[in-house]
Amino acid sequence: MSGRSSMLEPLAVFGEVVVESFAMAFKPWRFRFGDFLLAFQRAAFDGLPISIGIGFLLGLILAFQSAAALRTFGVESYVAALLAIGLFRELGPIITAILLAGRSGSAFAAEIGTMKVDEELDALTTMGLPPVRFLVMPRMAAAILAMPILTIFVELAGLVGGAIVLRMMNIPFAVFWNNAAENTTVFMILFGLAKSAFFGLLIGLVGCCAGMRTKSTADGVGVSATAAVVGGIVAIAVADGIIAVICYFWGI
Amino acid sequence: MADPIIELKGVDAGYGREVILKDVTFSIDRGEIFILLGGSGCGKSTIMKHMIGLNPVLAGELTIDGQPWTAKTRDSLFRKIGVMYQSGALFGSMTCLENVLLPLQEFSSLGRKARLEKARSLLSDVELLDAADKMPSEISGGMRKRVAIARAMALDPEVVFLDEPSAGLDPITSSSLDDLILRLRREKGMTFVVVTHELPSIYKIADRCAMFDKARRSMIAIGRPSDLRDGSDDPFVRKFFNRGEVSDGE
Question: Least CB-CB distance to A118: which of B78, B89, B107?
Answer without folding.
Answer: B89
